[in-house]
Amino acid sequence: MAAEAAGAFRRTAIERSDQRIAWDRTDQAFFAAGACHILAWVCRDSYPDRAIEIAGVRLAGGRQVFHAYALWNSWAFDHSGWNSEPELLAANTTFEGRPLESVKITDSLAEFCETHHSRMPHQYWQDPLPRAHDYVSRYTPPWA
To answer: Less CB within 10 Å around the terminal CB: N or C of the chain?
Structure first.
């Protein structure tokens, strides 16, 4: 699957205000907007023998990360599966119509959530971790 912009799956006002409605979106939409950080950390933790990092996309020069993904070498994993990081950044830049940049995230999941106003797993309508593990398992990693 080619890289798609996370913004193409932004939550509606009702999806932002009602966790059950947000939960009922397709897996791709759920992990593109609203739970991308959960997917990124699960991907990293699913391959403990690989040096997978966490990265994020933000407006160039900005502070707020609006999309998180797992990163191994030059391969990025997000709602679109495994794609080259330049392809993922290009898809998001084109969609947003503004310069974006990738930043490495060294925080824990809890620190990331606090800094970037994101939800921890226990704050979702249901536990997103099993759903994220299932989603990661659908994609063959680039080293396989």
So the answer is: C
Look at residues 58, 24, 1 and name the one whose alpha carbon lies nearest to residue 131. Answer: 24
To the nearest whole number, what is the mean pLDDT of the chain? Answer: 95
For residues 3-12, one letter each, b for 16 or more C-beta atoms within 10 angstroms of the residue's C-beta and e for the rest, the string is bbbbbebebe
* Mean pLDDT on 100-111: 95
Residues 6+ apart with CB under 8 A from 47: 72, 141
Residue 36 structure tokens: 């991308």
Look up residue 19 and give its two tokens. 């966790």
Q: Where are the domains of the chain?
A: 6-137
CB distance 56 to 106 below 8 Å: no
69 has pLDDT over 90 = yes
